[in-house]
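In response to reviewer comment 3 from the previous cycle, which asked for concrete evidence that the modeling workflow produces usable outputs, we include below a single protein chain processed end to end. The sequence was submitted unchanged, and the resulting structure tokens are shown without manual editing.
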Amino acid sequence: MIDSGIRRYQIEYKNDQPVTVENAAGDVLIDTNVEVFEEALAKVLVNAWESYHDEPDDKRPINIRTEIVDKGEEGRFALMHVEDRGRGINPEIRDHAFEPFISTKHTVGVGMGLTVARHSLRNLGGEVTLADRPGGGAISTIRHPLDRKGK
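The workflow returned the following structure tokens.
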């Protein structure tokens, strides 16, 4: 699913730059709507790409790290950390980054990517969060449940 999400991002946004994947979680079976997951991942990848502003294409590394966490009663989750080394999280929008039409860009038609990603992931029982990356940039973490309540 991660590879498919990366391909979707590369095709839809006409970007052929590689995304590095460190898959410590290994092969994991996730019960989900694959298309919705891929679209959410693509939106998070676009956000990471755009964080570099005017850097040349080959100077915009994006890395995805995976892990499995067990939250006891809350369940088990797959985490996908999308890391960039861009501008980081603007303090002016930090608390509102997932709200519609919030963006640091000053163009029309922006500010919906993270909103749609979060809404989509929440509908799948997951979440997406933002944090500062040590050394600069940001980390967007996608959390997807591995255990469905009631199963």
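The chain has a mean pLDDT of 87. We consider this sufficient to address the reviewer's concern, and the full set will be provided in the supplementary archive.
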